[in-house]
């Protein structure tokens, strides 16, 4: 009866008004089309401008949000056409949540994550053609970079059809090929734009500043015998003799498989050195007395001899031979190399969850990793904004979790974030099929790289939660209740109000429900199958475990768990540790070792964790990061150094508002900074490193106690240390393969150098504990001098060898910005890599190759150019 009533009522209404259903439907359709046409026209013509007013916090910042840190900005809207519709919303992403706006005509509302809406206020009367409307607001944190602003604003009307505002679409810079955001008004170098506090001593990376930074080490060095990463021992047998490989290589294998070295031989072929039956004899022999990754390489006047502990060692020996090759030459020096790695774990982390990256990009990263002897690929495949690998039996993970689009119900895709825009076919969306993933694994296997997958949890799990919610809803509608509840990840009765670090209120897997662990087991089992088929066995899985934001407090399931007196849980605050401990044991039962970020892992109890645990130490050194790292080493865990001040490759290269990247731990991480890092003695880096505002800090590694006399910190125990180091690339603000490649390279080469080779200028760790600062001098002047000499060699090698080979691989690396000064009308220029080609342009000339000091007429611009001339670096003005 109720159903009949709801069907009849609209017809009754039509009769009472004297209208026919067909005519009403026609009028409604026409009105809808007209409104839609008006909105589409508005989206096409509206001009949006986003302008930062100041990055300095004041008393009007919300004290309850991110410690009262905020910036002031404004969005300006100007339309050449009038727009009177009042039923619309503009959706846009903003890196930090907007706290307050002061517009009479418009309201800004935070939706979730970084998504906000602009809507007409009660005072709104329509948009008048040619009139500019300004929306002042305050947002959390800062906007110090041009690329902090997110693109692809879109508007929807009553029919919910989205239209991207054309003026907010990203464009491509004609010279550099990089993404630019024309609607974002450039920031200046003035303090209120460039510096977040009065104590900030960061200097803008102008051409003049860069020139001074580069000049001391702008020295040409012969790198004929240089190998990267640097071997443990190199003895040059002759300086006036060499071996020419132009006839190719005749490979003779003894106890080494062809399959194990095939990829290294392919790289040599790329460099012009092929296999040949009439080529130089290369004997590659297994030597059981050597460790698995160790090798010896002998090049004499007539042949090459290699001994290796395994296929891997032989592979690395051939990569060292590739490193000796200079551009357009087949001649190599005569020398003897004895080599083994500094660390067992030499990793690179790549996040494809926030913004998807193509399979081809991943293969290029793996190729470069292998060429420079990195052996662990931390593959970040799932986070709040996306799930990127197909899991058999759970199609919703990728059908829904692999895409962001305008679907407010999130039953077909996730809510747009990070400037993705409303369209499902955006290039930031997507996933790897089972076959794609196996291809990536096989490619890594051939290059002796272990793939460590990561689906972050329990926080950072919104993509999985929403996908499994959609699965639940679909199966419930089919009456399949048991199946529907099998992999549910959230408690529908949980009324907890929380906000994650990325400002989501629904991104944390419920740690108190068995279905959450059933889901994890299912995912891990499917990953295991794919890894086995690709011969890249899944022996380690990265849980994530970081940044869990006060969830579960009002969860019915968690209240029950607390009531049941489950071991290890005394209060709701213990639930996060319980989750990590339980997942770690779940993995251990499958023969898989658990890994995670140090903060989340640190909450667990050692006795409730498996014997082998990996922890990525990512707490910034300026905030005492060495303490967490040392504490977890002392637990007996395998600690991998992942220090953000030097190893986060999503941060800007230089302190310049036009350089892309987040900067919460550092305004600049160039290759030189990575190279200088001492990973085995974390606190000692305080003697030359500075904090995120370029101020000195103190690292105290002595024994410390609290008021009760309890030890709160102590140095690493003698004989213990770190197992390795890892570079990190996060993709929140990186939407293209080229930009991702730009962020990773050439910094990856400095990472490889430090991970493989311990330099003689590095200060050994003091197990008795010391306090370090820029007032201490444990690093001697002689050590600094040797470091500079070592950098000069590395710098020349990168410019004259590495980048040439990168171009042969069609790698989109960053060309450095140029340092330059004009003194008495003479231009002097340099770069961080000695030998990179420089061009200049003054008032009288077009771009001209810079070969040395030259008289110029101001204004002058300088830039670098690739060896093949196809790409240009970002130009800087010289005043």
From TrEMBL:
It is an enzyme of class 3 (hydrolase). This is beta-N-acetylhexosaminidase. Belongs to the glycosyl hydrolase 20 family. Keywords: Glycosidase, Hydrolase. Coiled coil: none annotated. InterPro entries: Beta_hexosaminidase_sua/sub, CBM2/CBM3_carb-bd_dom_sf, CBM2_carb-bd_dom_sf, CHB/HEX_N_dom, CHB_C_dom, GH, Glyco_hydro_20_cat, Hex-like_dom2. Signal peptide: none annotated. It catalyses: Hydrolysis of terminal non-reducing N-acetyl-D-hexosamine residues in N-acetyl-beta-D-hexosaminides. Its EC number is 3.2.1.52. The keyword Hydrolase applies. Residues 44-209 form the Chitobiase/beta-hexosaminidases N-terminal domain. The keyword Hydrolase applies. Pfam families: CHB_HEX, CHB_HEX_C, Glyco_hydro_20, Glyco_hydro_20b.
